[in-house]
Amino acid sequence: MSAIWNSSHRFDLKAAEWDENPRRTALAESVAKAVIETARPSASMQAMEFGCGTGLLTLALAPHLGRLTAIDTSEEMLGVLQKKIETLGIRTVETRCADLLQTSNADLGVDELDFICSSMTLHHIADTQALLNRLVGLLRKGGTVAIADLDLEDGFFHDDETEEVHPGFERSRLQAMLEKAGFERVSFRTACEVSKTNRAGEMKTYPIFLVTALKH
Ligand SMILES: C[S@@+](CC[C@H](N)C(=O)[O-])C[C@H]1O[C@@H](n2cnc3c(N)ncnc32)[C@H](O)[C@@H]1O
User: Fold this and answer.
1) How distant is the alpha carbon of residue 64 from its chain centre?
2) What is the pLDDT of residues 158-215, one digit of tens each?
3) Predicted confidence (pLDDT) per residue in 16-31, tens digit
4) Residues 6 or more apart in contact with residue 171 via CB below 8 angstroms
5) Does residue 120's CB lie within 6 angstroms of at least one atom of ligand 1?
């Protein structure tokens, strides 16, 4: 079978059990903590998260932000998040099924954002530079981006070899791409580490970075 980039069907199938993996919930918790400490979100900020999935990061950050638009390409992942929003009676988070690279700002329902965040989604998007350029177009001058993802890995992090992904990112190369897109004050930290038996059957530890930057 040939490799496929961002099959929303693949995530649709995983949605119902997504939150049952304690590695995922712990990762999101660590990323949320790192984002709050480093990027200092505030209740006055209009925000967006791309690749929100079932909302593990979304719901941890929502109390620290103003309106938050949570975007994903998987209807089923968003459906899980939507149920949580309704159950918890959250009024500040809106979900939207969209691919950022295919959707205008008007269709996303956002305008001049203060804050964009994401966790573990960047490596699923084929054209990293196009995505970063798009983020710049969504932010106001001085707006913040906070993205968590895998550091450059051995290529065995994902269990499914037919899934086309970036094998994490080299920090210096991602910094250059952010600066090329129009970000400044780019800063990396390690948000957490994920230890797991990888696709090659080896127990490995994979660091997860958080990069923050401001729109120039
Ligand atoms: C590995 S999951 C991470 C989900 C969530 N952030 C978490 O940490 O649990 C990646 C998510 O990104 C979504 N995704 C992939 N490509 C996307 C794109 N181009 N635009 C929006 N969402 C995308 C997938 O549907 C999936 O829900």
Assistant:
1) 17
2) 998 888 999 999 999 999 999 999 999 999 999 999 999 999 999 999 999 999 999 9
3) 999 999 999 999 999 9
4) 151, 188, 209, 211
5) yes
Supply the CATH number for residue 180's domain: 3.40.50.150
Are 152 and 169 within 8 A, CB to CB? yes
The DSSP bridge partners found for residue 69 are 48, 94
Token readout for 51 is 């690749």
Q: Does any ligand 1 atom lie closer than 6 A to the CB of residue 24?
A: yes
72 lines ligand 1 (CB under 6 A): yes
Q: How many CB atoms lie within 10 A of CB 89?
A: 6
Cα distance between residue 43 and residue 65, in whole Å = 4
CA–CA gap between residue 67 and residue 179 (Å, rounded): 27
Tally of structural domains, the chain: 1
Average pLDDT over residues 60-81: 97
Domain that holds residue 67: 4-215
Specify the amino acid at residue 13: L
Q: Give the residue whose CA is nearest to atom 24 of ligand 1.
A: 51
Per the rule left: phi > 0, alpha: psi between -120 and 50, beta: everything else, 41 is: beta
d(CA 52, ligand 1 centre) in Å: 6
User: pTM for the complete prediction?
Assistant: 0.96
Instruction: Report angle CA 115, 54, 202 to the nearest 5 degrees.
Output: 100
